[in-house]
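Predict the holo structure. Ligand: aspartic acid.
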Amino acid sequence: MSIVVQKYGGSSVADADGIKRVAQRIVETRQAGHDVVVVVSAMGDTTDELRDLAEQVSPTPEPRELDMLLTAGERISMALLAMAIAQLGHKAQSFTGSQAGVITDSAHGKAKIIDITPGRIEKAISQGAIAIVAGFQGVSQDTKDITTLGRGASDTTAVALAAALGAEVCEIYTDVDGVFTADPRLVTSARKLDRVSTEEMLELAASGAKILHLRCVEYARRYAIPVHVRSSFSQKEGTWILPDPPEGADDMEQAIIAGIAHDRSEAKITVVGVPDKVGEAARIFEALAEVEVNLDMVVQNVSAQATGLTDISFTLPRDDGQTAMAALARLQSEVGYDRLAYDDEIGKVSLIGAGMRSHPGITARFFAALANAGVNIEMISTSEIRISVVVDEADVSAAVQATHTAFDLDSAEVEAVVYGGTGR
Ligand code: ADP
Ligand code: ASP
Ligand code: MG
């Protein structure tokens, strides 16, 4: 029998009714003749609520203990889902990430999967059970401690498990009908995409489109797993993430732009008055690497001739802001810069499309749309198929809307239904 892996996000299992509805759907897949392995997220906003709770007890909780706490969210939903399936007369067994054989490194809060040994899952399905696996968690190979893979990483658990089990497809069930040309919570005229190439989906996910976790798309690409993103609240066909450009599509049909992503999770740090000498930038970025801060955009200004000083700005996850500022403060006397400026009221807007390679003028049209909307650009970065700008956080929504319209992405009918979730 072919194996289908299904992943249900938090909004799909937000309450008892949601769990029962999802259980029904899983049973229908089983009845259609598939072996079913389910990856489930914590109910609703449980993970955020557990984090808030931890913060009330300690502003800087031990990463090991925070992982212990957060993984409890998925243990609740997996057990309830197994019970709901049993209630429908089918066999189901739930497993923690560790029991499912998800082996990781020991980086708490952002662990990487090293290996998957899904023996217990294979045994459960060979005995006719539906296997339910807790998302976004594993066990460290070295320390044997419980780890989490990062926010939103249940998607990655699902695709990695699909690869390890040789599944036919990985279905990602969420609270919208698929991948849209922009976040449906922001752009009501967003259009659903029937297909997106992994190349474009990687850029969308990396640019903040929360619909899929970045590493899940990397897995899908590496192991050629077909991923189908769809709603657990409707029966509509969703979006297929496919390795190749849409079959049979000619240049006329292939959209130049796949979509627009936005990200409000980053902050900007500027190191002001850095002596423009060989090695200074290296010292600054080594210090950030030592404290394991991942940078996104980096810009160095041309130095002022009179002073020989330059400014270096970069963006990074807001969650790492204080760690980075502390690391840079320790460097002040050594590097001899003037001061640090921290801005967490920024947002990033990215335009993504493989058609950019062959169509000139995209940048001009993008920047003109921003200018017409009165949005000032603070930073710019590009890849072959992406242009990103940093703007004031308050301008993100206007920037996304204006760009969506400027590239003729607006849909005539309302397709962008949001069925659930709080968008947190
Ligand atoms: P889940 O809990 O199911 O994992 P997430 O909240 O992580 O759901 O992801 C789904 C959300 O992603 C949607 O509700 C939507 O607001 C957001 N989103 C952002 N960009 C897009 C996009 N381009 N297409 C669809 N949804 C998007
Ligand atoms: N529950 C985790 C989170 O909220 C993992 C996930 O939902 O993918 O980040
Ligand atoms: Mg998600």
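The chain has two domains: 3-174, 248-424. Residues 3-174 form a domain with the Carbamate kinase fold (CATH 3.40.1160.10).
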